[in-house]
Design goal:
- It catalyses: GDP-beta-L-fucose + NADP(+) = GDP-4-dehydro-alpha-D-rhamnose + NADPH + H(+).
- Keywords: Isomerase, Multifunctional enzyme, NADP, Oxidoreductase.
- GO terms for molecular function: GDP-L-fucose synthase activity; isomerase activity; NADP+ binding.
- By secondary structure, this protein is of the alpha/beta class.
- It has one domain: Rossmann fold.
- Helix content is 42%, strand content 15%.
- It has 11 helices and 12 strands.
- Strands 2-1-3-4-5-9 form a 6-stranded parallel sheet, with helices on both faces. Strands 6, 8, 10 and 12 form a 4-stranded mixed sheet that branches.
- Strand 1, helix 1 and strand 2 form a beta-alpha-beta unit.
- Helix 2 runs parallel beside helix 4 and helix 4 runs parallel beside helix 5.
- The chain is globular.
- The chain starts with 6 loop residues before the first strand and ends in a 6-residue tail after the last helix.
- 48% of the residues are buried.
């Protein structure tokens, strides 16, 4: 490994990938390889293999993924499982074939069983049924973890996996239905404020609890994990599996989140709950103690992170169509 390795960030225009690029730049990484979807279709095996053969990166951050909230997962299950499986398989296999020794795969806390004991630790993987509303996406992410594990076992690679909790922040998708809960709420409350709407309906009962992590904190965790020594990594993960959780450490109810987003936006109308809509898992709090023991910790409280996210929304997404 060179002093300034050649690093490929797959998905650099997405919320997580762009945050990883910011984190790497702040730490002095000088040789980044970046490709947009128009330049490189990661679902195209031949194109991905050709890219890796030409560029020969030394490290890969696999942040490219098709993501969305409950509505998107329910509406496009085939696209979620197909796109994510193809991207993961193509990138991980091409990395192996071209001698990439270190790769970081970004998964999701939805890999854990719907009713896993809270907070969920890494050993809960594959111990029970998944949440039905996002099962295809979760199965794809589990396959990515197991692919990294299998290549490590058979080929001696150093492919690591991190499981973030719910992320939000600059570069998010602010579609009111297809996005995750924080950006969807942010757009709805912003548009309700602008229109003078007397109330805003939030999906579900408001009782499920969720943990939220600011995306730049996740990016710093990703770089931290990539740079851990092999001995530190192996001492804090299950043998050969290479999986660590990344979370904030506390959660809030969806109702509490809605009021926090309304305060951030400055919306003063009534908040109602559409109980005909699905809630998803009753609670999703992850145990990040293994990563905390390795020297990383989150920096951004929820209220501060929401303010930063709203500033980004106002600067880049306010005028964009909700599509």
């Amino acid at each position: 490994m060179t002093a300034s390795p050649k690093i490929f960030v797959a998905g650099h225009r997405g919320m997580v990938g762009s945050a990883i690029v910011r984190a790497l730049g702040a730490q002095g990484a000088s040789t980044l390889v970046l490709r947009s979807r128009a330049e490189l279709d990661l679902t195209d095996q031949r194109a991905v293999q050709g890219f890796f053969e030409r560029e020969r990166p030394e490290q890969v951050y696999l942040a490219a993924a098709r993501v969305g909230g409950i509505h998107a997962n329910n509406t496009y299950p085939a696209e979620f499982i197909y796109s994510n499986l193809m991207v993961q398989a193509n990138v991980i296999h091409a990395a192996y074939l071209t001698g990439v020794r270190k790769l970081l795969f970004l998964g999701s806390s939805c890999i854990y069983p719907r009713l896993a004991p809270q907070p969920m630790n890494e050993d809960a993987l594959l111990t029970g049924p998944l949440e039905p509303t996002n099962e295809p996406y979760a199965v794809a992410k589990i396959a990515g973890i197991k692919m990294c594990e299998s290549y490590n076992r058979q080929y001696g690679t150093d492919y690591r996996s991190v499981m973030p909790t719910n992320l939000y922040g600059p570069g998010d998708n602010y579609h009111p239905e297809n996005s995750h809960v924080v950006p969807a709420m942010m757009r709805r409350f912003h548009e309700a404020k602008r229109a003078g709407a007397p109330s805003v309906a939030v999906w579900g009962t408001g009782t499920p609890r969720r943990e939220f992590l600011y995306v730049d904190d996740m990016a710093l965790a990703s770089v931290h994990v990539m740079n851990l020594s092999t001995s530190d990594w192996q001492a804090n993960t299950r043998p050969m599996q290479g999986l660590l959780n990344v979370g904030f450490g506390s959660d809030v109810s969806i109702a509490e989140l809605a009021h926090a987003v309304a305060r951030t936006v400055g919306y003063e109308g009534r908040i109602t709950f559409d109980t005909s809509r699905p809630d998803g898992s009753p609670r999703k709090l992850i145990d990040s103690s293994r990563l905390l023991a390795l020297g990383w910790k989150p920096r951004t409280p929820l209220e501060e992170g929401l303010a930063l996210a709203y500033a980004d929304f106002r600067a880049h997404a306010e005028a964009a169509p909700a599509a």
